[in-house]
Amino acid sequence: MAEVWFNEMSRINEMTITDEFYMVSTRTRGRVVARRLKKLKEGGVILVAKNKEKVIGYITNKEIVRSVADGDNPLDLSAKELMDTDFMEVVEDEMLGNVLPMLTERYPNAIVVIDYDGKCVGFFSKNDYKDALALLGIYDRSHEPETPDEWRTQGIAMSSMGQPKKALECYEKS
Protein backbone atom coordinates (compact mmCIF):
# COMPACT_ATOMS: atom_id res chain seq x y z
CA MET A 1 0.00 0.00 0.00
CA ALA A 2 2.20 2.84 -1.24
CA GLU A 3 -0.05 5.34 -2.97
CA VAL A 4 -0.95 8.85 -1.89
CA TRP A 5 -4.45 8.98 -0.55
CA PHE A 6 -5.55 12.51 -1.33
CA ASN A 7 -9.23 13.12 -1.65
CA GLU A 8 -10.56 16.60 -2.32
CA MET A 9 -14.07 15.31 -1.77
CA SER A 10 -13.48 14.33 1.87
CA ARG A 11 -15.76 16.43 4.02
CA ILE A 12 -16.88 17.14 7.51
CA ASN A 13 -20.39 18.10 6.53
CA GLU A 14 -20.10 21.67 5.23
CA MET A 15 -16.29 21.74 4.98
CA THR A 16 -14.10 20.13 2.33
CA ILE A 17 -10.95 18.49 3.69
CA THR A 18 -7.99 18.60 1.30
CA ASP A 19 -4.99 17.46 3.33
CA GLU A 20 -2.47 15.12 1.84
CA PHE A 21 -1.62 11.84 3.53
CA TYR A 22 -0.21 8.41 2.94
CA MET A 23 -1.71 5.34 4.46
CA VAL A 24 0.73 2.57 5.39
CA SER A 25 0.50 -0.78 7.14
CA THR A 26 1.78 -1.38 10.66
CA ARG A 27 4.78 -3.29 9.26
CA THR A 28 6.00 -0.51 6.95
CA ARG A 29 9.63 0.27 7.80
CA GLY A 30 10.68 3.67 9.11
CA ARG A 31 12.86 4.20 6.05
CA VAL A 32 9.74 4.10 3.82
CA VAL A 33 7.78 6.26 6.26
CA ALA A 34 10.53 8.92 6.19
CA ARG A 35 10.54 8.96 2.38
CA ARG A 36 6.76 9.36 2.31
CA LEU A 37 6.84 12.17 4.90
CA LYS A 38 9.45 13.98 2.84
CA LYS A 39 7.11 13.99 -0.19
CA LEU A 40 4.14 15.43 1.69
CA LYS A 41 3.35 19.12 1.94
CA GLU A 42 3.45 20.81 5.34
CA GLY A 43 0.59 19.48 7.44
CA GLY A 44 0.63 16.11 5.67
CA VAL A 45 0.69 12.96 7.73
CA ILE A 46 1.31 9.23 7.52
CA LEU A 47 -1.71 7.28 8.73
CA VAL A 48 -1.00 3.79 10.03
CA ALA A 49 -3.80 1.40 9.14
CA LYS A 50 -4.86 -2.11 9.96
CA ASN A 51 -6.49 -4.06 7.13
CA LYS A 52 -5.80 -1.20 4.68
CA GLU A 53 -8.54 1.06 5.99
CA LYS A 54 -8.89 1.18 9.81
CA VAL A 55 -6.52 3.85 11.13
CA ILE A 56 -4.81 2.93 14.39
CA GLY A 57 -2.20 5.68 14.57
CA TYR A 58 -0.35 8.42 12.73
CA ILE A 59 3.22 9.57 12.12
CA THR A 60 4.52 13.10 11.58
CA ASN A 61 8.05 14.49 11.70
CA LYS A 62 7.54 14.86 15.45
CA GLU A 63 7.31 11.08 15.95
CA ILE A 64 10.51 10.58 13.94
CA VAL A 65 12.35 13.13 16.09
CA ARG A 66 10.93 11.58 19.27
CA SER A 67 12.33 8.17 18.31
CA VAL A 68 15.77 9.71 17.72
CA ALA A 69 15.59 11.48 21.11
CA ASP A 70 14.75 8.11 22.68
CA GLY A 71 17.96 6.69 21.21
CA ASP A 72 16.27 4.64 18.48
CA ASN A 73 17.00 4.62 14.77
CA PRO A 74 13.62 5.49 13.22
CA LEU A 75 14.70 4.07 9.86
CA ASP A 76 14.84 0.58 11.37
CA LEU A 77 11.56 0.75 13.32
CA SER A 78 8.16 -0.28 12.00
CA ALA A 79 5.31 2.17 11.52
CA LYS A 80 3.61 0.57 14.51
CA GLU A 81 6.67 1.31 16.67
CA LEU A 82 6.88 4.92 15.42
CA MET A 83 3.21 5.88 15.50
CA ASP A 84 1.34 8.01 18.00
CA THR A 85 -2.19 6.95 18.89
CA ASP A 86 -3.60 10.22 20.25
CA PHE A 87 -6.11 10.84 17.48
CA MET A 88 -9.82 11.22 17.19
CA GLU A 89 -12.22 9.92 14.55
CA VAL A 90 -14.98 12.10 13.15
CA VAL A 91 -17.70 10.80 10.85
CA GLU A 92 -17.62 12.62 7.51
CA ASP A 93 -21.13 14.07 7.66
CA GLU A 94 -20.97 15.22 11.28
CA MET A 95 -21.99 18.85 11.66
CA LEU A 96 -18.93 21.06 11.99
CA GLY A 97 -20.56 22.94 14.85
CA ASN A 98 -20.72 19.65 16.80
CA VAL A 99 -17.15 18.63 15.95
CA LEU A 100 -15.36 21.79 17.14
CA PRO A 101 -16.50 21.59 20.80
CA MET A 102 -15.37 17.94 20.89
CA LEU A 103 -11.96 18.95 19.51
CA THR A 104 -11.63 21.81 21.99
CA GLU A 105 -12.55 19.52 24.89
CA ARG A 106 -10.23 16.66 23.95
CA TYR A 107 -7.64 18.50 21.77
CA PRO A 108 -6.24 15.41 20.02
CA ASN A 109 -3.00 15.54 18.05
CA ALA A 110 -4.75 14.35 14.89
CA ILE A 111 -8.28 13.98 13.54
CA VAL A 112 -9.15 11.24 11.07
CA VAL A 113 -12.32 11.58 8.99
CA ILE A 114 -14.15 8.26 8.54
CA ASP A 115 -17.24 7.02 6.74
CA TYR A 116 -20.01 5.04 8.45
CA ASP A 117 -18.10 1.79 7.89
CA GLY A 118 -15.10 3.17 9.82
CA LYS A 119 -12.99 3.52 6.67
CA CYS A 120 -10.65 6.49 6.54
CA VAL A 121 -11.73 9.07 3.97
CA GLY A 122 -9.62 12.05 5.04
CA PHE A 123 -7.39 13.79 7.54
CA PHE A 124 -8.32 16.97 9.42
CA SER A 125 -5.21 19.06 10.19
CA LYS A 126 -4.64 22.00 12.53
CA ASN A 127 -4.95 24.30 9.51
CA ASP A 128 -8.35 22.75 8.80
CA TYR A 129 -9.29 23.54 12.40
CA LYS A 130 -8.56 27.24 11.86
CA ASP A 131 -10.49 27.17 8.59
CA ALA A 132 -13.41 25.45 10.35
CA LEU A 133 -13.52 28.18 12.97
CA ALA A 134 -13.50 30.79 10.21
CA LEU A 135 -16.25 28.93 8.34
CA LEU A 136 -18.45 28.98 11.42
CA GLY A 137 -17.70 32.65 12.02
CA ILE A 138 -15.93 31.99 15.32
CA TYR A 139 -12.58 33.16 14.00
CA ASP A 140 -12.82 35.81 11.33
CA ARG A 141 -9.54 36.79 9.68
CA SER A 142 -11.20 39.42 7.48
CA HIS A 143 -12.16 42.02 10.09
CA GLU A 144 -11.49 42.97 13.67
CA PRO A 145 -14.32 42.28 16.14
CA GLU A 146 -16.38 45.28 17.20
CA THR A 147 -18.73 44.20 19.98
CA PRO A 148 -17.82 42.64 23.34
CA ASP A 149 -19.48 39.37 22.25
CA GLU A 150 -17.41 39.28 19.04
CA TRP A 151 -14.21 39.89 21.04
CA ARG A 152 -15.16 37.12 23.49
CA THR A 153 -15.87 34.71 20.63
CA GLN A 154 -12.56 35.64 19.02
CA GLY A 155 -10.86 34.98 22.38
CA ILE A 156 -12.42 31.52 22.51
CA ALA A 157 -11.19 30.84 18.98
CA MET A 158 -7.65 32.01 19.80
CA SER A 159 -7.60 29.92 22.96
CA SER A 160 -8.79 26.81 21.13
CA MET A 161 -6.10 27.37 18.48
CA GLY A 162 -3.41 27.34 21.16
CA GLN A 163 -2.76 31.09 21.16
CA PRO A 164 -3.30 32.12 24.82
CA LYS A 165 -1.68 35.57 24.54
CA LYS A 166 -3.97 36.56 21.66
CA ALA A 167 -6.92 35.06 23.54
CA LEU A 168 -6.17 37.23 26.59
CA GLU A 169 -5.91 40.32 24.40
CA CYS A 170 -9.35 39.55 22.97
CA TYR A 171 -10.85 38.92 26.42
CA GLU A 172 -9.44 42.23 27.67
CA LYS A 173 -11.01 44.06 24.73
CA SER A 174 -14.37 42.42 25.39
Give keywords.
7 helices, 174 residues, alpha/beta, three-stranded mixed beta sheet, disordered N terminus, four-stranded mixed beta sheet
Task: Give the SSE map.
Layout (H helix, E strand, L loop, with lengths): L3 E2 L5 E2 L2 E2 L4 E5 L4 H10 L5 E6 L3 E6 L1 H9 L9 H4 L4 E5 L4 H11 L3 E5 L5 E5 L1 H10 L12 H13 L3 H10 L1
Helix pairs in contact: 6-7
The helix content is 25-40%
Total number of beta strands: 9
Computed structural class: alpha/beta
Number of helices: 7
* Helix and strand run: EEEEHEEHHEHEEHHH
> Which strand order do you get reading across the main beta sheet?
1-4-5-6
Q: What composes the largest sheet?
A: 4 strands, mixed
Mean pLDDT over the residues: 77
The low-confidence runs, each spanning 5 or more residues with pLDDT under 50, are: 1-9
- Shape descriptor reads globular
Question: What is the strand content?
Answer: 15-25%
In whole angstroms, how far apart are the ends? 51 Å
Rg over CA atoms, rounded to whole Å, is: 18 Å
Report on this structure.
With 174 residues, the chain is of the alpha/beta class. Helix content is 39%, strand content 22%. It contains seven helices and nine strands, in the order ββββαββααβαββααα. The chain has helices at 30-39, 61-69, 79-82, 96-106, 126-135, 148-160, 164-173; strands spanning 4-5, 11-12, 15-16, 21-25, 45-50, 54-59, 87-91, 110-114, 120-124. Strands 1-4-5-6 form a four-stranded mixed β-sheet. Strands 7-8-9 form a three-stranded mixed β-sheet. Helix 6 runs antiparallel to helix 7 (164-173). It is globular, with a radius of gyration of 18 Å. The termini are far apart. Residues 1-9 have low confidence and may be disordered.
